[in-house]
Amino acid sequence: MDPITISIAEGARISGLSTRTLHRLAKAGDLESRKVGQRRLILRSSLLKIIGCEEGVGE
Questions:
Q1: Which of 7, 22, 40, 46 could bond to 32 as cystine, CB 3.0-4.6 Å?
Q2: What is the pLDDT of residues 16-31, one digit of tens each?
């Protein structure tokens, strides 16, 4: 089972986008994310939508 949320670094590894780009997308509201303590986690499903993948496809 794939995780619901992933770190910015893991999102960058999966997508090929830079961590800076993912931070910008999250700040703009284009990439759904949650702040947990000091850590920013992104919703895997939101990242897959941005890069044009169907849910369940990816890694």
A1: 46
A2: 999 999 999 999 999 9
